[in-house]
Amino acid sequence: MKKDKRKNLNFDSRAVYCPPDEATKSISPNIVMSSSFQYDAEIFQNIVDGARKEVNIYGRCGNPTEYQFEEQMMMIEGADACLATASGMAAISVTLLGLLKSGDHIVCDWTTYSSTHEMLDHRLTDYNIETSFVDTANIDAVRDAIRPNTKIIYFETIANPSMKVAPVAPLVELAHARDIVVVCDNTFASPYVMRPLEHGVDIVLESATKFIGGHSDVIGGTICMKSDLLPKDFLEQIRWNTMVKLGAPIAPFNAWLLSRGIQTLSVRLERACKSAATLAEHFEGHPLVNKVWYPGLESHPQHEIAKAQMPKFGAMLTFDVGDGDRALKVLDNLELGCFSASLGGVRTTTQIPALMAFLDIPKEERLEMGISDGMIRVSVGLEDVDDLIADFGAALSKM
Ligand SMILES: Cc1ncc(COP(=O)(O)O)c(C=O)c1O
């Protein structure tokens, strides 16, 4: 199928369709594991002339399996360009280091994945790049934080782990009126739930490790772009001037696993979102649960925003059981649900954000981020939802 026709398919078909390999006609993508590629005089001349993406040079610069995965990601995000990276954090670091220079300023939501927050709050400050942390659901606060040197507005479409939903269109309008680039991390939502580029965001980042891979067996990240503010070849520029220098390319086998994961994204997420909504309602009525955060609940502070910008509310939710000891008892007593650091796999996984991913962040900052000590994060998998309700019910009764 021609690319233009493919682009116009509905989301589920775009996720599944993969063109056959031209040489072998295999309908499953091939893997090219080679770290190095043979030159001839023509290839050599191409490289000398700067047509470096047209040929294969060396695994750190690019790989045919990576390009296949990037094309699939462009299709599902609605992007004009994509760059795949070794991890979600590599996608974030390459993007920030590629866009920013000393003296620049970022406006970022208070709540982002812990390593992102630490990168902005500590690491980039060492290079004279400052970040103002604000509540991006409050447009006035974002406007007030913008400075003449602000280059990026950054947020997570659904924040990890507070579940805050950023109002994307107003943020884009505010930023673009000032030529500020909008970058968001869409990991918690996944492209099935939210496609930020369709709402005017310039760059969308994914930890493909999570819902895109979907089976807890691969690490990877993507940077997808559709932007009038950046040069059309911006991702190719940062491939060469940042990613290759940091040494952060995706491994070919990982790109292959992720290409395979994309094909079942819709069916996995359809089930997981439905179960997450059922679990969220169940927890909201549970006598041992203090509070539940899920964008699909009317009690969620940005429920109306979520309804307006997302066709589904996602497979992530959090709830509070009072303190860290009680939270630990619940997770340690789960039998079907898995007490584990990551998210987005076929199994339901849980963690205590304050005591795990956000442990290194001072308590006052954690509270500002909306992370209480007794908060439990749940990534809802594909188990039968009645079995999950029974498993959580039994674990909660042991607190
Ligand atoms: C929202 C979010 N962004 C980025 C990352 C980093 O992804 P990776 O572990 O693939 O580097 C994570 C990891 O948990 C995450 O939750």
Note the topology:
Layout (H helix, E strand, L loop, with lengths): L2 H5 L3 H6 L24 H8 L15 H14 L3 E5 L2 H12 L5 E5 L4 H10 L6 E5 L4 H7 L4 E7 L11 H9 L4 E5 L17 E5 L13 E5 L8 H13 L5 H12 L1 H20 L6 E3 L9 H7 L6 E5 L3 H9 L5 E2 L9 E3 L11 H6 L6 E5 L5 H12 L3
Parallel strand pairs: 2-3, 2-4, 4-5, 5-6, 10-11
Antiparallel strand pairs: 1-7, 6-7, 8-9, 9-12, 11-12
Helix pairs in contact: 4-10, 5-9
Bound molecules: pyridoxal-5'-phosphate (PLP).
Structural description of this entry:
The longest helix is centred in the C-terminal third of the chain and has 20 residues, at 265-284. Helix 4 (64-77) runs parallel beside helix 10 (252-263) and helix 5 (88-99) packs across helix 9. This protein has helices at residues 3-7, 11-16, 41-48, 64-77, 88-99, 114-123, 139-145, 168-176, 234-246, 252-263, 265-284, 303-309, 324-332, 363-368, 385-396, and strands at 81-85, 105-109, 130-134, 150-156, 181-185, 203-207, 221-225, 291-293, 316-320, 338-339, 349-351, 375-379. It has 15 helices and 12 strands. The chain has 399 residues and is of the alpha/beta class. Helix content is 38%, strand content 14%. It has 2 domains: 3-263, 3-Layer(aba) Sandwich (Aspartate Aminotransferase, domain 2), CATH 3.40.640.10; 266-396, Aspartate Aminotransferase, domain 1 (Alpha-Beta Complex), CATH 3.90.1150.10.
